[in-house]
Amino acid sequence: MTPTAVRLRPEPLSPADVVAVARHGARVEISDESIEAMSASRAVIDALATDERPHYGVSTGFGALATKQIPVELRAQLQRSLIRSHAASSGAEVDREVVRGLMLNRLHTMATGRTGVRPGVARAYASLLNAGITPVVGEYGSLGCSGDLAPLSHCALAAMGEGRVRDARGALVDAADALAEAGLEPVVLAEKEGLALINGTDGMLGMLLLAAADLRRLVSTADLAAAMSVEGLLGTDAVFAADLHALRPHPGQLASAANMRAVLAGSTLIEMQKNGDHAFTRVQDAYSLRCAPQVHGAVRATLDHAESVAALELASAIDNPVVTADGRVESNGNFHGAPVGYVLDFLAIAVADLASISERRTDRFLDKARSHGLNAFLADDPGVDSGHMIAQYTQAGIVSELKRLAVPASVDSIPSSAMQEDHVSMGWAAGLKLRRSIDGLERVLAVELLTGARALDMRDGGVASSKSSPVLTAVRRAVRAVADGPGTDRYLAPEIEAALGLVRGGEVLAAANAAAASPLL
What we know:
three-stranded antiparallel beta sheet; two-stranded parallel sheet
């Protein structure tokens, strides 16, 4: 269940909390414990605000300018100038859910009481989220160190009543106008607060959590699609037996094999391959069918690791300098995005391979020499009709791009800030390309499901006379609700988009789970 409200405490958020606020618009509340923790750390900063000794972020410049002492009367201006100068992103506008995730993660770090911001600043961020006001952030500007500086600066700028935002209706407006319409007052930043609002891995973490939620759904959808392809290509389910997979007991592999057994249970077509007139005579199926649990399982293992990193990052309070529990103000390097950047890249590799094996299964349906009795390209009248020939081209083009997107961003580093920031993570870039990869995977799986349903209809005459398993009959019925069955060639792009909607919205998985003896893992 998606929570409708998320209450911030000094303790970690859950991944579901972040997805609920970022994607589904859940409201944000700040607990009394967090208000007390913020007030306590703010008292530490206030005690340093008039100190003549240099304190980074309070009375000095930033980055390569950290050696410059700032006069007391200019220290509030220092924070405002920091935000204005760092709000320097460029390029295409980042998705709303990414910006909301970014803001929530930064707000939660404030709520830990380790940043030294006043409670009013945290309340301002919560109010922006609850009012549906989303700062406009360009895709370029973060090197992933010292955190997601430019994206976070645009969020702080909006809280100050400056810059451009999207209001709750999605209209592009000035931040000052959006705040006024929502009855909100702009924030006037005090010492340390500007820096505290922009030093964190919040954007890349938000993208990791959103991608992980999507990939959990998609890897089960891939198990479903693979099982449909096995059935449609008259393969065997013998290779998915539990005792065979127990010989190599990777948890993800075991889960994927169990899913495929559950999906294929009760299939007349599979049973015919065992005992019927068309008994299975091939020594073994192709790798894209036979090895699906091994590949899909490796994706699950990679996702498990990524989620473990995300959980640790959610339990972190990242700022520089940080106010420690015993009242010290200490510089540190916790803002470096390497841990998050690496797993974002790992997931892009896994996504590319998951899409690649899906495309190979689809291609087998279209080749008359390998489809075991189906028309070439699943065409109604091959030659006159082309069937799903170009749908596979679309898959192939996506898979080719996913391979390019699998090239890691985190192995790159480009020095900045006059060599003060001489090694950066590129985690923000890794997050953005993973989002594009997830989109591509959804489209590839949609084409496989659409193709598998067409092939099965050609085998048995359609859902009404289905010889599929109960689960796959339910899936075929869901596909047929949005796309017609076999016939002469027609405009195919809308059917691909409709199947994409079933994958992206989770309806195809829901249809399978409703028909399965137990939900897919």
